[in-house]
């Protein structure tokens, strides 16, 4: 059964269109300025298009790929009108994204592993806890038994915040007091999950420690300790990135994936930002799939990322 298809289909498109509004209006504004007074795609239009893509946070490497593709088309069709530019850009971005490996995993099913352990990582404030709350809700709505683990013990508020999501979504939470060993919380959580016959475990982790080395060591320890209960845990390490930080999100993805094993990405806060183009760059540049996108603060505002739907929504005016 395609669990995710079912649980995310409702109003998904509308939500995505709304979430990308700012990105789109800023992008199309810039585009129309780039082609103003021009009827033909020439070098100057291409230069301007390059600027538009870079300033929309698509990233330099992906922008260059896109421009090269459009250049090839310009060379092929002697005359390319600026009125066709949107359509062509859309086709080339869609083609580019379908070449990246990050596509096929978009419509995942919950694997046949029980309990399936997802460890959620990322720097502070990116939306880890919120994403866990949203996921808990979605899994639960799909009839799955969910357990949360409050392994961000660095701040008291972090535990309280996860507790709020546990109450809101009516799922059990395993926690200890602030300052306790995160690995011990994670151990307790997976052990309880096995006892409760849970389907999914969501482990919250700290984004802020005294330094980066400490943080990475702690994540490694959390993983190792969970493996005493479930040898393959965590089955998924989900890195959460704040899309509204644009290129910064990109840098974080680079640094985090270099320092620890990450198996999937979530890009949050795409609503209320004009930097949504960063998702195009991230899914082109990283081998790790973008699995979820956050398009609001509400419990329903998390979507399984589908690059075709994304490009579709991006270019729908
Ligand atoms: N608009 C919007 N806000 C979001 C989204 N996801 C999270 N937020 C907000 O971002 C803020 C930080 O979210 P948290 O979930 O606390 O982030 P965190 O990564 O757990 O932060 P720490 O626990 O401090 O490391 C909160 O105010 C959330 O409501 C999103 O998709 N859209
Ligand atoms: Mg948190």
Summarize this structure as a short list of keywords or feature phrases.
alpha/beta, Four Helix Bundle (Hemerythrin (Met), subunit A), binds guanosine-5'-triphosphate, Rossmann fold, binds magnesium ion, 317 residues, 51% helix, Signal recognition particle receptor FtsY
In brief, what are we looking at here?
This protein is of the alpha/beta class and 317 residues long. It has 13 helices and eight strands.
Percentage of residues in strands = 5-15%
User: Mind telling me which CATH architecture of the largest domain this is?
Assistant: 3-Layer(aba) Sandwich
Q: For this structure, what is the CATH homologous superfamily of the largest domain?
A: P-loop containing nucleotide triphosphate hydrolases
Task: Report, as a whole number of angstroms, the end-to-end distance.
Answer: 34 Å
Q: Please tally the helical runs, counting DSSP H or I stretches of 4 or more residues.
A: 13
Structural class based on helices, strands and sheet pairing = alpha/beta
How would you describe the shape?
Answer: elongated
Q: How many E-type strands? A: 8
Largest sheet: 8 strands, mixed
**Low-confidence parts:** 102-108
Order of helices and strands: HHHHHHEHEHEHEHEHEHEEH
Provide the spatial order of strands within the biggest beta sheet.
Answer: 3-2-4-1-5-6-7-8
The radius of gyration is: 21 Å
Q: Which molecules are bound besides the chains?
A: guanosine-5'-triphosphate, magnesium ion
Mean pLDDT figure = 89
Number of structurally distinct domains:
2
